[in-house]
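Sequence design from tokenized structure. All designs in this work follow the same two-part layout: the structure record, then the generated sequence. An example of the structure record is given first.
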């Protein structure tokens, strides 16, 4: 887990951040702490669907760097998360077929930042990141994105396959990228409303995620190495969507 998000330490500070609707990546609570306002913090965090993690007090001491944490620390995102429905509405508002990217268990903040940068360049309407087992928005992501994090809306989602089912119902095609894809990526029709799914650096897409795809495409590899860096693979697909859309528009 990357801890380079902004640290909010102390019960009152965390409660205020929750009440104000700050975009928080995670709440860390000292093991066994359930007294007083901590209960309030936990219930509010649960209501907001936030990840709550129990850690040793020593970890909180180290993270809060001398600030009294009173058994709780929140990690805040550098920018506010967007809402998935708002992302779709914005696409339809521009009279464009939605163009989304879903990062399935992508853990490297440099890859996430690089993908945001390409997403901005190719006209992606929004990026979806699962709340669990995926890299959230951190300062490293923001820095690597070279400012794109300010322009590309990022939404956090719960269950990946349920989210993909909901997007399918709204008419989006779900296209996964994987080495065992059925066709080369440039052979697929990517001109309609689409969500491009990119898996983790080592494992690729999860089984259920792959099953939720309408089709899976591969990037042809002619060398000795069998896979590309996740952000490079994603870039190829995003530029192919842009290329096909521009050709269709002509």
């Amino acid at each position: 887990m990357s801890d380079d998000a902004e640290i909010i330490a102390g019960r009152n500070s965390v409660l205020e951040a929750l009440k104000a609707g700050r975009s928080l990546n995670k709440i860390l609570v000292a093991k066994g702490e359930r007294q007083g306002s901590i209960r309030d913090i936990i219930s509010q965090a649960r209501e907001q669907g936030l990840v709550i993690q129990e850690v040793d007090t020593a970890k909180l001491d180290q993270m809060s760097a001398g600030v009294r944490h009173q058994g709780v620390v929140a990690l805040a995102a550098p920018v506010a998360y967007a809402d998935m429905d708002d992302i779709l509405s914005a696409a339809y508002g521009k009279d464009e077929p939605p163009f989304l990217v879903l990062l399935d268990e992508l853990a490297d903040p440099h890859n996430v930042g690089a993908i945001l940068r390409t997403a901005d360049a190719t006209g992606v309407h929004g990026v979806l990141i699962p709340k669990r087992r995926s890299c959230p928005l951190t300062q490293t992501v923001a820095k690597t994105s070279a400012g794109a994090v300010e322009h590309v809306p990022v939404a956090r989602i719960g269950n990946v396959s349920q989210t993909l089912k909901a997007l399918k119902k709204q008419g989006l095609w779900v296209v996964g990228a994987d080495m065992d894809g059925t066709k080369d990526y440039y052979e697929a029709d990517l001109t309609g409303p689409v969500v491009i799914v990119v898996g983790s650096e080592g494992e690729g897409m999860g089984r259920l995620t792959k099953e939720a795809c309408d089709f899976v495409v591969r990037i042809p590899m002619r060398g000795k190495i069998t896979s590309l860096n996740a952000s490079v693979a994603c870039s190829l697909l995003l530029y192919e969507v842009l290329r096909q859309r521009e050709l269709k528009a002509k």
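The mean pLDDT is 90. We note this feature because it recurs in several other targets discussed in the main text.
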